[in-house]
Amino acid sequence: MNAIVNIILAVQMLTALGMIGLILIQHGKGADMGAAFGSGSAGSLFGASGSANFLSRSTAALATVFFVATLALAYFGNQRAPSTGSVLETPAAAVPASSTAPADAAVPASAAEPASGAAQIPTK
């Protein structure tokens, strides 16, 4: 189960990086106006309008894979064993006494009880 989640996570990361790259390569709608007046970008590798179709379809395919991977990770994330309760209901860990304090020093009674935190929340 853990290997499947790792594979899906890797696919999601790679598609996210691919989408970032494809989105940065694409040109905006205003760039087509410059090609109409002879800016020289009309003779590109994919033709006058071929790059827009290829890049936008590739971005859409990667976005679909990204969202499917996100849904799969959410599904597998909910398959874990349910927790036994709230984090606030768990007892606080005991703090060990510091080694620099003298051994004969008296600890006040108020220091034994926590000043705030989960122990101060009233239970039902």
UniProtKB/TrEMBL annotation:
Q: Which UniProt keywords apply?
A: Cell membrane, Membrane, Protein transport, Translocation, Transmembrane, Transmembrane helix, Transport
Q: Where in the cell is it found?
A: Cell membrane
Predominant subcellular localization, coarse grouping: membrane
The source's superkingdom equals Bacteria
Which segments cross the bilayer?
A: 7-25, 54-76
- InterPro entries xref list: SecG (IPR004692)
Region: Disordered; residue ranges are 105-124
Please describe what this protein does.
Involved in protein export. Participates in an early event of protein translocation.
Record family assignment: Belongs to the SecG family.
Q: What is this protein called?
A: Protein-export membrane protein SecG
Q: Which organism is it from?
A: Diaphorobacter limosus
